[in-house]
C-alpha cells in the first residue's frame, strides 16, 4: 500500500493507518512499544498552514514521544524518518513546510541527516541506540 502525500486531517488519517500497518503498530523510534501518538517534526506553531503533510510525521509510542523526541534535533528526527519511512521522506518538501520560499535551504541538510546515520545504528535497523 502506498499513500500519496496529502495535507489536512484526511491526509493525516490516511498516513496514520498506512504507517500503523507498515510498522505493525510499533513505534518508529524504539520499534518495540505500541505506537499511539503522531509526532509532527516541524511544529504546527512554526508551520501553521502547511504542517499536515506525510513528510512531517512520525508515529511514536508515548515514552519516545515525551522523553526521547524532545532532546532530538530536526536532523536526527529526519534520520529516523528516512530509515523508517523512506517513501515519505522528502527533505526539500519538509523544509518548505516552514519556509515555502526556501530562504534558508540549509537549515537542515542531507549531510546533517547522514551524520546521524553514521554515528548511530539507525541505518542498520538496530534500535539499541535509539
List the helices and strands and how they pair.
Layout: H1 8-22, E1 37-40, E2 57-60, H2 62-68, H3 74-84, H4 91-98, H5 110-119
Antiparallel strand pairs: 1-2
What does this structure look like?
The chain has about 130 residues and is mainly alpha-helical. It is about 40% helix and about 5% strand. The chain has 5 helices and 2 strands. The protein has helices spanning about 10-20, 60-70, 75-85, 90-100, 110-120, and strands at about 35-40, 55-60. The chain has a two-stranded antiparallel ribbon with strand order 1-2. Helix 3 crosses helix 5. It is globular, with a radius of gyration of 14 Å. Residues about 125-130 have low confidence and may be disordered.
Supply database-style keywords.
130 residues, mainly alpha, 5 helices, 39% helix, globular
Number of strand elements: 2
Helix content: 25-40%
What is the string of helix and strand elements?
Answer: HEEHHHH
Question: What is the strand content?
Answer: 5-15%
Q: Report on the biggest sheet.
A: 2 strands, antiparallel
Radius of gyration over alpha carbons?
14 Å
Q: Note the overall shape.
A: globular
Strand order of the largest sheet: 1-2
Give the low-pLDDT segments. 126-130
Task: Write down the overall mean pLDDT.
Answer: 82
SSE class: mainly alpha
Give the N-to-C terminal Cα separation. 27 Å
Individual helix count: 5
Amino acid at each position: 500500500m502506498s499513500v500519496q502525500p496529502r495535507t489536512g486531517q484526511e491526509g493525516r488519517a490516511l498516513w496514520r493507518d498506512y504507517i500503523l500497518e507498515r510498522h505493525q503498530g510499533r513505534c518508529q523510534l524504539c520499534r518495540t512499544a505500541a505506537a499511539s501518538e503522531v509526532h509532527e517534526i516541524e511544529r504546527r506553531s512554526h508551520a501553521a498552514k502547511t504542517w499536515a503533510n506525510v513528510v512531517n510525521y512520525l508515529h511514536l509510542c508515548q515514552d519516545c514521544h515525551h522523553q526521547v523526541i524532545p532532546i532530538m534535533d530536526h536532523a536526527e528526527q529526519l534520520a529516523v524518518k528516512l530509515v523508517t519511512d523512506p517513501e515519505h521522506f522528502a527533505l526539500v518538501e519538509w523544509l518548505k513546510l516552514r519556509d515555502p520560499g526556501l530562504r534558508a535551504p540549509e537549515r537542515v541538510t542531507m549531510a546533517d541527516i547522514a551524520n546521524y546515520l553514521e554515528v548511530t545504528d539507525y541505518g542498520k535497523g538496530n534500535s539499541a541506540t535509539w
